[in-house]
Specification:
This is NADH-quinone oxidoreductase subunit M. Pfam families: Proton_antipo_M. It comes from Kocuria gwangalliensis. The protein is mainly alpha-helical.
């Protein structure tokens, strides 16, 4: 089943790429159809999922691949990866619906996004370091062509900056993976085997160096301060669907790598570096919020809020490594909050970037000063943007509140100093309220007269993303029942 989920979009992408006779409409609807099937398949997985236990994987498949280095095609899911698999399927379906009217090379666009969908899903099911790295690197290549080929502004330069930064990070990641392979006895790239072996236990120097390489590689993709500088231009110049996938899915590969690879395989090194990781998380939260507050470009503002929101995840995961007497439950709550934040940020920020793309499509600018009173001609647009803004700032009733509450409840219980990141929530609220006021209230100004309200495809792409955020906020047990057992298992590994 997992192989079908990964390779179906890759096969569809290959067909679209090599058959030039496929028409524009057929290509667009093929993208939607494949994305619908993917979501249904993930739904079947979710319905049949049972917790596999510590260091176990459900729906596991393993086939020898590169036997000389003990690397296999090994895939599976647990409570840390299944929610991200589902979120990925939802975000790509939303992008497929949003792009139904795109006229710029729709066949090639559909093929490229289906390729991105396949490799993104592959990252979240990979249980072998080489397989993880292959999918991880291919996602960089796919997003480079999305930004360069369908972006605007200085798209080629932004795409090149994105590629160079993230590819350099992936080289550091590969170096860390090789370090794990060399340290393991017997040598292996299999993630469950490495977790069970804890290959660098008792060697703090080598373990710290290997963890440093892995952390740098994943931090660039996340991105955290100071590795974030590629993110704002990439988002600003990317197409709306590209920004939605970049923020909603690709950024999660970094933080997912923390919980799947760095924390369980190198628990001693993670504990040794815990305060550094907490500090990076706190700085990312506050820096991202304050810099976002200073922006006049709406899309750039949303991009910096991603630095802020991903900082919450890093903060929580760092706190897990801070050992405290009797704090296992609090640390488990922090991990659960981090995973929920990955899902929540993916849904909400993807919706906000799709909404921001409407501005570019209608008026050719994201400058907030070029609008005013937009709620009058575009009430549906104003309503959905307001919902997205309140969801992003962590209003109770939405998934962001569930995630941030758990992150801070768990982190502060373990390391009270993490409370200094709380003002980030206040600043985020201020920047979104300011954006709503400048763009949607007051007299009509700038590009507002004649601004067309949301069309059906735009409503059906953004609406379900925000509805899912609301569903998680109101009925969080649907998600938490899957995540919590895996979080507890991860905490027991880090604390061993």
């Amino acid at each position: 089943m997992l192989s079908l989920i990964v390779f179906l979009p890759l096969a569809a992408a290959a067909v679209l790429a090599v058959v030039p006779s496929i028409g524009a409409a057929a290509a667009r609807w093929a993208w939607v159809a494949v994305s619908v099937v993917e979501l249904l398949l993930v739904g079947v997985l979710w319905a049949g999922y049972e917790d596999p236990g510590p260091n176990g994987l459900a729906f596991e498949e393993q086939v020898p691949w590169i036997p000389g280095v003990n690397s296999s095609y090994h895939v599976g899911v647990d409570g840390l990866s299944l929610p991200l698999l589902a979120m990925t399927a939802v975000v790509f379906l939303a992008c497929a619906v949003h792009a139904l009217r795109d006229a710029d090379r729709p066949r090639v666009q559909a093929a490229l996004f289906l390729f991105l969908q396949g490799v993104s899903l592959g990252v979240f099911v990979a249980a072998d370091l080489i397989l993880f790295f292959v999918f991880f690197d291919l996602s960089i290549v796919g997003m480079y062509f999305v930004i360069a080929g369908w972006g605007h502004g200085n798209a080629v330069r932004s795409a090149l900056k994105f590629f160079l930064y993230t590819f350099l990070g992936s080289l550091a990641l590969l170096l860390g993976f090789i370090g794990l392979y060399v340290a393991a006895a017997p040598h292996t790239f299999d993630i469950p085997e490495l977790v069970a072996a804890a290959p660098l236990a008792g060697d703090p120097l080598t373990g710290g160096l290997v963890l440093a390489a892995i952390l740098v590689g994943l931090a660039v993709k996340t991105p955290t301060v100071p590795f974030h500088t590629w993110l704002p231009p990439a988002h600003t110049d990317a197409p709306a669907t590209g920004s939605a996938v970049l923020a909603g899915v690709l950024l999660k590969m970094g933080t997912y790598g923390f919980v799947r690879i760095a924390m369980p395989i190198l628990p001693e090194a993670w504990r040794a570096w815990a305060w550094v990781i907490v500090a990076v998380g706190v700085v990312s939260v506050l820096y991202g919020a304050f810099v976002a507050l200073a922006q006049t470009d709406l899309k750039r503002m949303i991009a910096y809020t991603s630095v802020n929101h991903m900082g919450y995840i890093v903060l929580a995961l760092g706190a897990v490594g801070v050992l405290a007497e009797g704090a296992a439950q609090a640390r488990s709550v922090a991990v659960t909050g981090a995973v929920v934040q990955m899902v929540s940020h993916g849904l909400i920020t993807a919706a906000l970037f799709l909404l921001a793309g409407v501005m570019q499509a209608r008026a050719g600018t994201y400058d907030m000063g070029s609008y005013g009173g937009l709620a009058a001609p575009a009430p549906r647009y104003a309503a959905l943007f307001a919902v997205g803004a309140f969801a992003s700032l962590g209003l109770p009733g939405f998934s962001g509140f569930i995630a941030e509450f758990q992150i801070f409840a768990g982190s502060i219980a373990v390391a009270p100093v993490t409370a200094i990141a709380l003002p980030g929530i206040l600043v985020t609220a201020a920047l979104f309220l300011r954006a709503l006021q400048r763009v949607f209230t007051g007299p009509a100004a700038g590009h507002t007269p004649g601004f067309a309200d949301l069309q059906g495809r735009e409503l059906w792409s953004v609406g379900p993303l925000l509805a899912l955020s609301l569903l998680i906020g109101v009925l969080p047990r649907v998600l938490l029942e899957v995540v919590e057992p895996a979080s507890s298992a991860l905490v027991s590994l880090v604390g061993r």
